Amino acid sequence: MFFFRKTPLLFAALILLAGHLFAFAEETISDIKIDGLRKTRDSYLQARLEKYIGIPAEELDMRAIETMLQAEGIFESVQTEIVRAEDGRCTLHITVKEKISFIPLPFAASSNGNAMGGIFILDTNAFGVKDLFVFGGILSNESKMAMANFSKPSLGLLKPGYSFGGSFAKAEATFLTLDEDDVLAYDSVGFSVHGSVSDRLTEHSQLSLGAAYNQYTASDEVTYCTNSYKSESYRAVYAAASWGMAVHDWNGWFLLEQKLSLESGLRFFTDRSIASTFSGQLCLERSLFTPRLRGMLQTSGTYRRNEHVSQLGRGSSVNVVILPDNFYSAKLFGTGASLEYAFAKARIALFSVYAGYQSAYSEDTDGAMRFTHGVTGGMKMYLTKIAFPAFAFGLAYNVPLSMLKYSVAFGISM
Q1: What is the rounded (10 degree) CA torsion for 282, 247, 391, 378?
Q2: So what's the pLDDT on residue 221?
Q3: Residue 347 CB contacts under 8 Å (≥ 6 apart), including other chains
Q4: What gap in Å lies between CA 78 and CA 71, rounded to an integer?
Q5: N or C: fewer beta carbons within 10 Å in the chain?
Q6: Mind listing the pLDDT tens digit for each residue in 52-87?
Q7: DSSP state of 32
Q8: pLDDT of residue 388
Q9: How far apart are CA 192 and CA 208, in angstroms?
Q10: 93 in helix, strand or coil?
């Protein structure tokens, strides 16, 4: 009799428990709320985050969301939380603090006596949808250059982005061998206009197609050592295709990146000659022992065939700083491994020191391939409110060349 008297109560309890279990099972993200936006449009971020609608709250990877927003490059800080309602509906609540995106950016740099400086006016979040425009000029002891560019990112498959711009430069170019001997010097004037379209194939990969027109006038016709490169004037159309993929991981100190990019292009000169270019880059970064310490491995290469001397690659094109500043090569490959430790983080800046080892395999001006290697080290300061290194100082020593280099940069990364 006791069991039968208690049966209605047991059924009610079971129904109530089942309701709670059902509500828990149905806790999915039904809404996204974003606080702290000042310039960025809410609709832009809602479009980037809409893939999280309908995902069970317990399966939501909050770190992945913070990483994606940090990778946008426009936020100083990101905080995420899930707000649950009694009916089982959940809201993904995001609070952000935006970086300064409209920047009149003065910059200066010096490396072994080669100095440069200038100013750029840029907006990394134009119209609140992460469009980018930049215009300004660079002045160095060898050249004067002015440039302007506007780009709109692709927001997804069949939602293409685009970029267009141009530049004008006047230079007194000097070319060196690996042993820092002068081999070519001439004056030149040139300009270029370019445009491209891009489409995000997946969340982490993108394909781009571009074209450019180049016109270049030089003062002499001087052969670049034993190679067939000359500094004569030319007009050419350049067509290129590039593909890249990148995966990021925000650890609270660094935005770690794993990236692979490939590019191939053809330059069609008005004398009916054709030059070809191929380049690639692999970058791997990860935390080691603590989020403050990141290990970095980079491998880059560029190969140019029949290219004009003004279009040859230099150390910066393959992320190698142990080569002479004015050394250019048609075949240039570099790799490097380094550690960077963030030793302090203030409200306005992050301070770090780094050390690494680099190697380069390149074609010298006599046509021979040479291997060089050396150590690098220095310190950097990143402003947390803007997306550029505020200050950097570096040293590099090339062992086979017995060459010590220094670099100091303000407002740009070298």
Answers
A1: -50
A2: 55
A3: 384
A4: 11
A5: N
A6: 998 888 888 899 999 999 988 889 889 999 998 877
A7: E
A8: 62
A9: 19
A10: strand
User: DSSP letter at 58?
Assistant: G
155: pLDDT strictly greater than 90: no
Nearest Cα to Cα of residue 214 among 231, 193, 198: 193
The two structure tokens encoding residue 376: 């690098």
Residue 45 host element (H or E): helix 42-49
Cα 378 to Cα 109: distance, rounded to the nearest angstrom? 15
Q: What is the distance between the terminal CA atoms of the chain, rounded to a whole angstrom?
A: 86
Name the nearest CA neighbour of 295 among 308, 286, 304: 286
Which residue from 287, 403, 280, 281 is spatially nearest to 339, judged by alpha carbons? 287
Contact (CB, 8 A) for 226 and 219: no
For 401, the token pair is 């060349």
The tokens describing 347, both together, are 């409200």
Lowest mean pLDDT among 57-71, 351-365, 383-397: 383-397
DSSP 159-223: B-EEEEEEEEEEEEEEEE-TT--EEEEEEEEEEEEEEEEEEESSSSEEEEEEEEEEEEEES---B
- Binned at pLDDT 50, 70 and 90, residue 390 comes out as confident
What pLDDT score was predicted for residue 294? 97
Which residue type, as a one-letter code, is found at position 235? Answer: R
Q: Has residue 17 got a pLDDT over 60? A: no
Cα–Cα distance list, 132 to 102, 104, 121, 151 (Å): 10, 14, 11, 5
Output the six-digit token pair for 237: 């159309």
Give the Cα separation of 109 and 391 in Å (integer): 10
What integer pLDDT is reported at residue 226 of this predicted model?
A: 56
Map residue 250 onto helix, strand or coil.
Answer: strand
Residue found by looking up tokens 């490059």 in the block: 73
- Name the pTM for this structure: 0.82
CA 153 to chain CA mean position, Å = 13
Q: Please report, for residues 54, 296, 312, 317, the alpha-carbon distance to residue 336 in angstroms, rounded to integers and kept in the order given.
A: 43, 8, 21, 13
- Alpha-carbon distance of 371 to 414, in angstroms, equals 22
